[in-house]
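Dissemination and training. As part of the outreach component of the grant, students in the summer workshop were shown how a complex can be specified as a set of sequence lines and then modelled as a single object. The example used during the hands-on session is reproduced here so that future cohorts can follow it. Participants entered these lines:
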Amino acid sequence: MSAPVTRVGSQSGTGRAARRRRRPPMVDGVPAPGPVESILKGIFLVIVCALVVVPFMGIISTSLASPEEVVAAGGFVLIPTSIDLSAYRSILSGGVVTQALLVSAFVTGVGTLISLVLTGLLGWALSRRGTVGNKPMLMLVLVSLLFNPGMIPSYLVVQQLGLLNSLWALIIPTSVSAFNVIVVRSFFTELPGELLESATIDGASEWQLFRHIGLPLSKAVLAVIGLFYGVGYWNSFFTALLYINDTNKWPLQLVLRTYVINDVAMGSQELAASAEALPPQTSIQMAILMISIIPILIVYPFLQRYFAKGVLTGAVKG
Amino acid sequence: MTVHITRRTMLRAGLAAGGAAVVAPLVSSCSNEGRGVGGDGSGGAAGAAVLPTYIPYEGVQPDLDGTGGVADAYLTEVTSLVKGTDTPPGDGQPISTATFISTPIPPGVSQNQFWQELNQRLGSPLEHAPSTFGDYEQKFPTMVAGDQLPDIWTVGTAPQRPALLEAKALDLTQYLAGDAIAAYPFLANIPTESWGAAVFNGKIFGIPTPRGGISTSALYARDDLLAKKGITSGPTSFEELFDICAEMTAPGSNTWALSSQPLNFVRQMLGVPNTWQLVDGRLISALEHPAQKEALEATRRLVEAGYVHPDAFASESQNYKAWFANGTTSMALDTLSAWPGFPELAAGQEEFSMTTYGPPKFDGSGQSAAWLGNPTFSITAINVKAGDRAETLLKVMNYFASPYGTEEQRFLRGGTEGVHHTITDGKLVLTDLGIAETRMGLQYIAEAPTVLKDRAQFDAQMAVIPTAVPNPAVSLYSETDSRKGGQLFVDLENLEGDILQGRRPVSDWDQGVASWKSGGGDAIRDEFQQALDTAPPR
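and obtained this result:
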C-alpha cells in the first residue's frame, strides 16, 4: 500500500493538507491579526502610549517654556513657542543646587555601597544554619519590620551618636533595610546546598563561600537591592531636614523642595514678605522634576537587565 | 534545619517585642498631669502691664500715611537713608538661629557675599538654619525634644505652648515690658496688637512678626476684563455679584468668573462674625451664626451655576493666582498681601489691570465689614539657656526689625547696591545674585511693620481695613484648639465642600456644627472665654 501523495503547491482539495493550507497564518501559536484588528490594536497602543508620553513631554516642554507662556497656558505647555532656559538658570545659579547635587551624589554612592555590603553580609549570615545568634538576629530583623520607632526617638539616637549636622547621619541610620535583608537571605537560602558542601569539603572557608559562590550568583538580586537603596538615598530629604542644619550639606531633594512647596505651604500671607522675589513658577517646578529624575534615568538602563530577574527572587520556589 | 520565615515566626517575634513597646506609652499617656486648660494669651490683668509701650518710628516720613490699621506707603525708594544703629549689635560670639524661609534656600556663608557682609554688620557670625514653612513644623518638635534649640528660634506649632515657652524660652518681660522697650526702639515700633500673641502667663516670651491688616481678605477683580463687558464697579449686593459672575462666565471660551468658591466673602456680606463674636462679654462661635446656612445656599448657587472654575475644589492657591493672572478667571478671593504677586504673574500682559472689592451687604443696603486678618504671623523666642546674652540677642533682633528708610533695612532687604540690587525708576530691583543670596528668611527673626509700595494697593487697603472687624480671640490661646483645632477645621472644610458641590444638603450644616461643638469646639470656646475673662479689653 503506497503512502498518500501530498501535492506541493496545490490550492484546492478537502483533505487535511487542504485544511492546513486554508488555515490563517499563526504567530506564536495564535492566529495572526487581520488588518482591521491590527489597526484597532495600533490605535489602542497609540492612546496608551500617549497617556504616558504626553505628560512627560509636557514636563520637559513646560520646563523649557518661559514663565509668561506657562502662565498664559494655564500651567501646562505641550509645545513651547521658544526655548527659555531661565527656569534652569534660576535653579542652577548661586551654586546651591550644584553643591546639593554633589552632596546627593556622595550620599547615594557611598550609602548604596555601604548598604549593599552590610545587607549582603547580614543576608548571607542569616541564611547559614548553625550561625551563632542566627535565630535571635533574625527575630530582631523581623521585629524592625513591624515597628517604627518614630521621628523623635530616631533623632535622639542620631544626636547621641554625635552625627547631627554630619552627612553620615544621612547614611548610617538607614543603611540596612530589613526588607532587603529578608530578600537577600531568601535568595541565599535557595542556593544548592550541595554546591556549598562540596566547596566546604574542598577546604573553602565561610568567607570564600560567600566571596566565590554567593556573591557571583547573587548579582541580579544585589543589583535590584542596590537600585532600591540608590533610589532611596537619592530621593531622601526628611532625614536631612531633621539632622542637618548647615544648608551646604543639604541634599538635592531638600534644596529643590524649597522651590516647590513654599508657595503652597505659606500661602498669600507671606507673599508680601518676599514681594521683590518672584514666587516659584510652574516652569521652575518642571525644571526641578527634570533635574531630580535625570540621574535615575541615566543609571536605570544599566541595571534593567537585572531588574526583572532580581525582582522575582524568592517569589517562585523550585 | 533552615529557619523559614513563616507567619507564625513573624507573629511570635512581633508579640515578644511589641508587648512592652505598646503598653508603656499607653500607661504614661493616661495621665492628664501638666496639660493646660488653656493658656492666657494676653497675660491676664498683669498682661496689660507687661505689654510694651508702642513707640512708632518717625525717622522717615511716608508718602501716604496709613490709618485704621493700614500700612504706610512709600511710592518710591527713599533716597536719603537714615542710620538706624550706631554700633554693631553683636558681641563677637556666634549667634545661632532657626526660622522659616519662604523662598529657596540661599548659598551657605562661605559662598554668600551678602551673608558675609551681614556678619560684619552684626558684629557676630550668624549661624542661620532656615527651614521651609511646612518642614519647620516637622523639625521643631525634634529640636525641642533633643534640646537642640538655637539662641533665637521661631516658635513652631506645638501643644502646651505656655508650658513649652516657660521651659524653653527666656522671659523677656524685664527687658521689654512697658517703657523698658525704649532701649530697643525698632522693637518698640511693633504695634501693640501684635504683642498679645507673645504674652503667656503674664510674661513676654518672644518678639512678634507683625502683619497689621494685610492678611485681611478681599475680592480681587480684573477690571480690564470686566470693563470689556461694561462692568465698571464692584457688586453692591449678592444678586449683583451673581449677575456679574454670569456675565463673566463662558465655559466654551474656558473662562469663568471665580477662581475659587467665595464662601467667606458671602459670609462677610451677611455679617457673619470673624471666627468669634462677643455678645455681652460671652464668646459665640461664628459657626453658630444664623446666617451660615444662607451663606452656604448662596455660594452653592454660584457653584451650581458653573461660575466657579471647575478645578477650584481640587486646586491650590497658586492655581487660583495663575488663573486670575492669565484671565481664565476674572475674580479671585485672596488676602491683601497677595497684591504685589499678581502683576508679577501677569508680566507680559499689557492690558492687565486689577482692583479689589470689599464685601457689600447681601441685600444691597450698603457696605459690609470685612474680617480683619491676624495682626501677628509668628513669634520668635530667645533660648532660655542664652539668658546671659539676652541684651545682645535683643539688640540683634532690634537690628533685624530696622524700619523702612534706614540703612540697615535697605541692606537687609536688598544687600549691597550695585551687587545685590539696583534702584531703577525709584524701585529697588534685585539682581540675580541678590535674589540668590539675600533671601535668607531673616524677616522671621524680627521684622518692622509692613510698608506698601503701590498707591493702588494703599487705596485698596484703605477701602477695606479701617472698617474690618477683628477676631476677639485672635491673641488668645486654647490648648484644645492647638491640639484638635486643625482636625476640627478640616472636618468642617470638607463639609463645606460637600455642601457647595451639592453632595450634601445645606441642612447638614447643623449636624456638622454639633459635631464640632462636641468634638472640641465647646472646650475651645470655654478656654478662650477663660482667657478673655482674665484679659483686659483692647
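Chain B has 19 helices and 15 strands. Students were then asked to discuss how this feature might be tested experimentally.
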